[in-house]
DNA sequence: CGCCTGTTTGAAGTGGTTCAAGACAGGTGG
DNA sequence: CCACCTGTCTTGAACCACTTCAAACAGGCG
């Protein structure tokens, strides 16, 4: 059954900006339903003009682009709290695809209501823009990583970023966080080959910097890893849609 | 002296969405001045919380990030019509720097007025979000390029994209467009070394696909170049701020 | 003229790719 | 219950696209 926004389990997590009562009330109207999908389900695809926006409530996904040469670039990992489909929402068309990596539950919003949001809820509209700018910021960081860092630095960057983000939504357990992706997914995200990604992971494991197995990532010293990955930014208080 | 928005020379270019009279009137109030800077001038820097937003009226610039290891990633080339500083505008802090590559003239807006825009001009607010989403889209494309394409494909992609964008603002002259950047700039944008970039340019020149010298880029067959660069998206009608 | 920035070229080195093959786990059908 | 998938991870070895090092050249400028 659809969770009421008032009881939204993720809204109160430390990562998210508090919402006023009026905002919660509006979101409750804006939300048209809840969706539950299995792992592997495509949520949005490149070129489509989806009538819907989603917010991930639980589970993990991937945003990616497929190239004419058959290669795949993973743009980012979708985690609980992420807004999905903003591009189609404002520009009318997706230029990347999104799919569920694990089972996911999602809030569903009506794209056509986005306009109402802009007209009547300036604060929320500002938040939407904040989210778009934040994604731009993330991609800029990813670009700098792929473009200028070594394989080891890149993997360390990705792990550290994911660890901090998961920590901020209370998914850290001791020194480990869930990581339900494959090495191929990580390779596609960092522009590396699967083989080299695997060898890089082995090296990080030997040095006790990061151990990734059975869907869980363990990081004994996150600050050391951040240093290796040349991480400069931390997740900041963000609005939730 | 300051151009009135009503007479804005770039608003009527084919690339930009028409603006209503009410919108023009608002922009005229939103705009607090005009700025003219020399080549090399830093406009915004990483970490700063600039009180201003700009729109490039003429001239060329660069957005880039500097890494702790001393390397530089160019995120994009700033062309006339581009909005600068949106990140600081909504998130309060820049995570990349922007500087002028040539002489530039810029419209200056007051960041604190951005909020007024969101409250009283929903359409314009929507446009701002559109712009943010469009930058995200571009960075996704750049990521796929750097991550998955060969050096030749990357250079072809960058050239084709710039050519089409400049064409859309009437800066094409026959088969040539202005390109006032250095090979080092391009190398930093594509995550390649200067030497290899230079050799790749030589190869494209030999094959008569693209000739870049003395600040001008000539492309005899843009569609062939787009194919080589695996270009899938074209510049689309965009709002101007 | 001397200096600076940007471009060009050659040659050597390497971080990463590609190819190949095996191990292991989970799932499926006979 | 076993044989046989298929997907993921792992490892070794050969190769090459790109980097790094080095040096020369061209144009603009005080």
From TrEMBL, chains A, B:
This is cAMP-binding domain of CRP or a regulatory subunit of cAMP-dependent protein kinases. It comes from the Bacteria. One of its GO terms (biological process) is regulation of DNA-templated transcription. Residues 149-223 form the HTH crp-type domain. One of its GO terms (molecular function) is kinase activity. SUPFAM superfamilies: cAMP-binding domain-like, Winged helix' DNA-binding domain. Keywords: DNA-binding, Kinase, Transcription, Transcription regulation, Transferase. Pfam families: cNMP_binding (PF00027), HTH_Crp_2 (PF13545).
